[in-house]
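Sample entry (190 residues):
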Amino acid sequence: MPNFIKVRTITFIVTILFALSSCKSIENIPGGDARKNPPDPAARVKKNLEEGRGFRLDKAFQDSGKGGDFVFASANELWRASLDTIDFMPLASVNYSGGIIITDWYSDGQNAEESVKISIRFLTNEVRTDALDIKVFYKKCNQVINCKITQKKGSLIAELKKEILSKATIYKKQNKDKDFKPYNNRALGK
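Predicted structure, serialized as tokens:
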């Protein structure tokens, strides 16, 4: 019987040590700095929704007849400009939270043996030249089953990036003209 108590005690101690070692320290909890967050709960909710870090449940269960209201994606100028630039191509995968857009294979109809696929990865939400990683893939087929896929570098990538950035700049200016003011610390007098 004494061995059973030893085993039980050792198991209890190991379990407690394991549980304590998996806890994070309080300094590593995100969003814990009160100086960086507005004191007003309504302003905090608005800021989080504008940054795409939250969602609202108050209207989620109402049947409004539409799919949803994705203000966070439409407020991002780069995202909107990218979708508007490649809107003629079918989309294979679009993930706002992951920051990637992948088109399906596209052919303009003149040459059915050649098609193109574009992937746009967002490295930042800021409108600047290094914010996008664009890859263009070409597929050339001799027959339906004999295809060669290659990644191309060159003028098409530069043209896409230029078009997306110019549209994003226009969208950003339009948002500023509409008094679209994100939260900043100056409103609190800091």
